[in-house]
Amino acid sequence: MKTYKIAVVEGDGIGHEIIPQALSVAKGAADKNGFIIEPCFFPFGAGYYLVHGDFMPEDGLETLKNHDAILFGAVGLPQVDDTLPARHFTFKVRNAFSQYVNYRPVKLYEGVPCPLKNKGPGDIDFVVIRENNEGEFVQSGGQIRPDDIDGMAIDTSVFTRRGIERIARYSFGLARRRKGKVTNVTKSNTLINSLAYWDRVIAEVAPEFGDVNYKKMYVDAAAANFVLRPEIFDVVLTTNMIGDILSDLGGAIMGGLGLGSSGNINPEKKYPSMFEPIHGSAPDIAGKNIANPVGAILSTALMLEHLGEKEAAGDIRTATQEYLKTGPLSKDLGGSGSTQEIGESILARI
Predict the structure, then answer these.
(1) What is the count of structural domains for the chain?
(2) Last residue of a domain, which of 254, 281, 314?
(3) Do 327 and 337 form a contact (C-beta atoms < 8 A)?
(4) Share of the chain above pLDDT 90, in %
(5) For the chain, how far is it from start to end, CA to CA, in angstroms?
(6) Statement to judge: residues 85 and 126 lie in one domain
(7) Which of 15, 81, 100, 142 is 20 to 30 A removed from 306 (C-alpha atoms)?
(8) Are the CB atoms for 47 and 14 separated by under 8 Å?
(9) Same structural domain, 247 and 271
């Protein structure tokens, strides 16, 4: 029987509540479809940092590398500088394992109240593809005499032809399997070097996919259209920082960030990919059994699909959609369902 070794990093805060539910649902789908999920748990995160002075041990990446995928909760605690978690865990894993695709579906589900007027489930169904290793988040820069009157700070964005081409080809290929549309969200009218180059390279890749409709849209217009006309989007291709912001807006228009799933994907499968909900560690509600586990559960569907278990992934999505129709929804969606109750309800449907 096929066995997948999954590194499980619950992280901090509500990660300790949502990831057990997501793992339970994934195991249920695996049992149904005749394969095994073998989890191995690692205590990495801000809590680990408070004890050990780092977010993972020196050999942490080498340890994670020996798994088929990583299931991750969230990282961050109030007593830890919030500039540290991304640098010392999330970005570290994404870069070390060449997880250059950040895949974030945006979909409105039946039974979930939509904050947008006159929009239903058929109107919101697209994917934000965020370049995940380059762009604005490379953390190349520094501060020069920050306490002086003429102090200054610099962050330098980095865009390479190789990085742009590979994320563009991934996006166009995905669009072929979806509705056949790619929207490049950019700001090249003001970032006239970096994003003009981004646009140029994407435009050079586009003719390789002549069957896919391609258009460019500035980020301010895209943000407005996410709210006013979400139905026009299929695959949204964008940069690291723009994608980070727009995908959270996507979570909001689908009803709440607790529903958002994501994958940090190495398409070539040379390294393990990492799957996580889009929300944070939410320490203010940790331990109360009220966190919404749906984003984490749907992240396991992305994980199983990436591993080639499409039927199991479909079972998770179907069960989740059926649960959302009937509830009880989680507190963030206006309901009274507990974290455990929601996880058990979805598992029962599988």
Answers:
(1) 2
(2) 254
(3) yes
(4) 96
(5) 20
(6) no
(7) 15
(8) no
(9) no
Same domain, 90 and 200: no
The verdict on residue 108 lying in a domain is no
Cα–Cα distances in angstroms (integers) from residue 120 to residues 112, 182, 329, 347, in the given order: 10, 22, 18, 26
pTM of the model: 0.94
Return d(Cα 54, Cα 76) in angstroms, integer.
12
Examine the domain organization and report whether 137 and 182 are in the same domain. yes
Q: How confident is the model at residue 140, as a pLDDT?
A: 87
* CB distance 72 to 274 below 8 Å: yes
- The three-state secondary structure class of 10 is strand
Based on the fold, state whether residues 118 and 171 are members of the same structural domain.
yes
**Residues 91 and 236: beta-carbon distance below 8 Å:** no
CA distance 24 to 14: 16
**Calpha distance 342→326 (Å, rounded):** 11
Q: What are 219's two structure tokens?
A: 């980020």
CATH value at residue 284: 3.40.718.10
Whether 168 is in a domain gets the answer: yes
Domain membership of residue 92 as a residue range: 1-99+267-350
Task: Tokens for 248, please give them.
Answer: 């959270």
Is 250 in the same domain as 118?
Answer: yes
Name residue, tokens 């929207």: 183
Q: Are residues 89 and 134 in the same domain?
A: no
**Are 118 and 190 part of one and the same domain?**
yes
- Is 300 within 8 Å of 275 (Cβ atoms)? yes
What's the rounded Cα separation, in Å, for the pair 139 and 153? 12
Pairing status of strand 69-74 against strand 36-41: unpaired
Q: What is the mean pLDDT of residues 53-81?
A: 96
- Could you tell me if residue 105 is inside a domain? no
Confidence of residue 80 (pLDDT cuts 50, 70, 90): very high
pLDDT given at position 47 = 95
pLDDT at residue 43, as a whole number: 97
Q: What is the pLDDT of residue 139?
A: 87
Bridge partners (DSSP) of residue 64 are none
Tokens linked to 158 = 């980095």
β-strand partners of 37: 4
CA distance 281 to 26: 21
Burial status of residue 346 (CB atoms within 10 A of its CB: 0-12, 13-18, 19 or more): buried
Q: What is the DSSP string of 3-69?
A: EEEEEEEEESTTHHHHHHHHHHHHHHHHHHHT-EEEEEE---SHHHHHHHSSSS-TTHHHHHHTSSE
